Amino acid sequence: MPRIARITVLLVGVTVTLAQVGAACGRAPSAPTAPGHLTRTAAVRTFSSALDEAAVKATTKAQWVRIARDNTIVVLNSWDFGLIPLLKHANPRIQVWVYKDLSGVRSDDCATGNGECGTCTKDVTDSTFLSSGMGYCWVKRNHPDWLLRADGNGQPLQFQGYPQTWETDYGNRAYQRQWIRNVLADIRDHRWDGVEVDNALTIADAYGIAAKYPTNAAVQAATYSSLREVGPALQNAGVASVFNVGYATLFPGLWQRWLGPVQGLEQEFYLSYSTQPNAIGTAWSTYEDEISSCTGQHKSCWFHSGENSTGVTSQTREYALASYLLAADGQQVFAVGDITSGIWAPRWAPGAPVHPMIQTGAAWRRYFEGGIAVANPSRSRSIVSLGGSYLDDSGHLVSTITLGPASGVVLRASPGQAAANGVP
After folding, report:
1. Judging by beta carbons within 10 Å of its beta carbon (0-12, 13-18, 19+), is residue 149 exposed, middle or buried?
2. Dihedral sign, CA of 226, 229, 232, 233?
3. Maximum Cα–Cα distance for the chain, whole Å?
4. Which end of the chain is least crowded, N or C, by CB within 10 Å?
5. SS3 content of the chain, % helix, strand, coil (to 5)
6. pLDDT tens, the chain, 424 aa long
7. Cα separation, 242 vs 194, whole angstroms
8. What whole-number distance in Å separates Cα of residue 144 and Cα of residue 140?
């Protein structure tokens, strides 16, 4: 989406109501597709997106240092490239990616005092640093036909909810190639490590219906053509990328097919689009299949849970992390909430998984060299025998846990249990 300038112990958490998880998602989950090869991993890879201009300006140097040390990838707007040296000094292994919109241009990305492009008079130029693949005024002057028209009134289509963003012809081959040229130039000029490509659209009314692409099928055909052009071009140029796909779970098989031409896809609302868990049962299995598809195709995908705020509950965070670890292979990347939420992953290294996920009643568990992840994607409490001794957050040994609906936990193995799991 456009960015404005993640013993028995009782883990019930917040009560999950029918409205929170969705009435259609209450059936028992089917077995998700088995994950692919099991890759040794030292710790959970995490990412943070710092795209709100006011929040970026308010972030202190000390906070940037913490963000760099806590994450594998940080995403910034093009105009914030000056933060790259600070982040890399704090963490030489950090990757700093740039954000780019695939299907829109912004009329507040101009080199004027307030950034407004207005009617693009002769004295107005686009900013050097853009949130999309090209400037609004450049498009108006050179390819006004690339501004899609709204179905019904024939006017240029403004994104609903984002009045300064205008939908562009992302299915047009010439547009796609110009987008590639411009984005690669930005990446090379400012030494970005990769690009997060937003708005790989799947539905016709995501921001308003365009006359050229009035149906979901037409939108998906146009977007897929863009992925087939842009994805390989970025990879051939040695640029890492991920494409944010909205509403993928509504279309069976779409995520798996769209993985083909790209290095990875992003699920922006993994298991939750709010502060609470929003997926259980078969819906949970659908999200798990997205992760398993990425591991099976050897892709690096991103999974972000919850709305972009600090209000995402601890239950949501724990449920998302445990569920993520059930299927991930160490090449995927995880996030919850917004950049100010802090890291939400074990400070200790889970190590390599020693077995694919195993169903235990209504719950699922997966063993790692250094611990265990357990998730309950049902609407009922579940008592889970861990098959060994593990340490809870207080350092107490536990061998059985009780998980409430839509909840999860990641526990560290006790020294003896770690040895049994293969850790020296």
Report:
1. middle
2. negative
3. 74
4. C
5. 30, 25, 45
6. 554 442 333 333 322 232 333 333 444 566 665 443 344 444 689 999 999 999 999 999 999 999 999 999 999 999 999 999 999 999 999 999 999 999 999 999 999 999 999 999 999 999 999 999 999 999 999 999 999 999 999 999 999 999 999 999 999 999 999 999 999 999 999 999 999 999 999 999 999 999 999 999 999 999 999 999 999 999 999 999 999 999 999 999 999 999 999 999 999 999 999 999 999 999 999 999 999 999 999 999 999 999 988 899 999 999 999 999 999 998 999 999 987 666 566 767 788 898 899 999 999 999 999 999 999 999 999 999 999 999 988 889 999 999 999 999 999 999 888 777 765 5
7. 8
8. 4
- Read off the pTM: 0.90
100: β partners:
197
Closest CA to 377 of 21, 24, 44, 33: 21
What the block records as the tokens of 320 is 């998302």
And the tokens for 214? 């009035």
**Residue where the block lists tokens 């569920």:** 323
Q: Report how far residue 133's alpha carbon sits from residue 167's, in angstroms, rounded to the nearest whole number.
A: 12
DSSP letters spanning 345-359: S-SS---SBSS--EE
Place of tokens 């770690």: 418
Nearest in space to 388 (alpha carbons), one of 376, 375, 378, 399: 399
Alpha-helical (H) ranges within 276-401 are 281-296, 314-327
